[in-house]
Amino acid sequence: MSSLGGPRPAAGEQPGARPHLWAAGGALLLCGLAVLLGWVWLRWHRACGIPPGPKPRPLVGNFGHLLVPRFLRLQFWLGSGSQTDAVGQHVFLARMARVYGNIFSFFIGHRLVVVLNDFHSVREALVQQAEVFSDRPRMPLISMMTKEKGIVFAHYGPIWKQQRRFSHSTLRHFGLGKLSLEPKIIEEFRYVKEAMQKHGEAPFSPFPVIGNAVSNIICSLCFGQRFDYTNQEFKRVLDFMSRGLEICLHSQLFLINICPWFYYLPFGPFKELRQIERDITCFLKNIIKEHQESLDASNPQDFIDMYLLHMEGEKKASKCSSFDEDYLFYIIGDLFIAGTDTTTNSLLWCLLYMSLNPDVQITTSVICWLRAPVCPGWRTRAKVHEEIERVIGCDRAPSLTDKAQMPFTEATIMEVQRLSMVVPLAIPHMTSEKTVLQGYTIPKGTVVLPNLWSIHRDPAIWEKPDDFCPHRFLDDQGQLLKRETFIPFGIGKRVCMGEQLAKMELFLMFVSLMQSFTFALPEGSEKPIMTGRFGLTLAPHPFNITVSKR
Ligand code: HEM
């Protein structure tokens, strides 16, 4: 029969071998064609005036080398992967800006990514062209984990607006940014102080207690409950969360954006990520279920209660509403994760910088004099402890109303935020239509990374950007300077929704701890690596501290 359709097998050839050869040849041809098309497509893109960048490879873009096992990798343009993992992608991208300019691009698979490394391009994109630059990427890794629901990764549009407006006003109802939340924060930090005092003069890691305390604030707003520092289940959830944020930008997980089925691989970061997702989902779903069972419509206690009631109201009023249980789950997840890890890391960085800069904690005229050349006027500046003593004293609890009289303390927190930049690449944005940014064409669907870290280390904006110098946020009279280039919470329509809460927490928690203790690194210990552990957030490397009571 084969003689009818195809060429006859040659003498000595197995019957049926030819069709296999034809099939293999066809497959090869198709692959070749796909590579060629990919190549033409990438070259065409570059020719269209997109920002400059390294040469992509067909199909895989600039991340193809990650498909090769680490020990076999040659040095492609992004290094072996270990280079980016070691310094953090934000530093690596800032270094690339020196080669390609402040706006440059690369490809993940066929997806164009544009990195904005300076304040002007970030402001032009996120503020002046906010309608175009405020969407979030439709990328497999993000879509699989978030279903593109919630607030953080939801698409820019009417549903995101409704959900964000409702969430923000509900959190405000429960005290976000208001004096009514103060007692809760102060109370929580009483527990922290007790826990710290138990260590006496011995060194300890501040990570678990600070993480638990910060999380308890968002938990009491959202779930109406706090978790004891000895609660092992909660501790596990917090550990999972910070691990999840650390690995989610792991270079291997980027591969999911090229081949989505990698998500289901039964090993390495893929398996770990799925396990983390399962555990956090289970924890949050249980809490929502408990709320549904005990809901008292006349007396809503927290965010979940308010959302459930709003959901019911919307259901009664109209048939199509974006308020549903699924959305509630993702919003709660967003608030819990965004509200815990960011503020925890900021506070940990504060403790680390305080331990490394005793002259900021206490007045030591010799140290101040020595530092004067680095940070002019240093010697004459009030120090954090002095300010606390003068404005608050030793017995009274701090209040937000003290803030206006404590510019040095505020400048110190801001300087720690500037240097640590806990959300170094913000959260990826996406263009919703084709546009032009500073002369470059940015096509619709481009992923945009605002490199906040590089803005806050830009020598054109900050004198000696790598030095710790709270004074840069003060004017000649010692009053706080509002600097428009200081944007740790991002800018534009997607600016952090928890900015007021975070500022409030940072001030009250930092002052509360500094009022009670002097922090130091254990004697003889090595200075911790200050680059941070890169993930979606930038956490300090593990360190121990000692506290002495004041
Ligand atoms: C020091 C602490 C914090 C820092 C530095 C920080 C920083 C940021 C940054 C840089 C973004 C991304 C902005 C962008 O996409 O351009 C963001 C988004 C967000 N943050 Fe925060 N954040 C902090 C605390 C919080 C807290 C306590 C909450 C909880 C209420 C929160 C909730 C959110 C939400 C919901 C978004 C997504 C907003 C949206 O996409 O519309 N953040 N944050």
UniProtKB/TrEMBL annotation:
Transmembrane segments: 21-42
Assigned keywords, A-Z: Endoplasmic reticulum, Heme, Iron, Membrane, Metal-binding, Microsome, Monooxygenase, Oxidoreductase, Transmembrane, Transmembrane helix
Requisite cofactors: heme
Cellular compartment(s): Microsome membrane
UniProt keyword Iron, yes or no: yes
Signal peptide: none
UniProt-listed CDD domains: CYP2U1 (cd20666)
Main location: membrane
Family membership noted in the UniProt record: Belongs to the cytochrome P450 family.
Protein name as annotated: Cytochrome P450 2U1
Organism for this UniProt entry: Apodemus speciosus
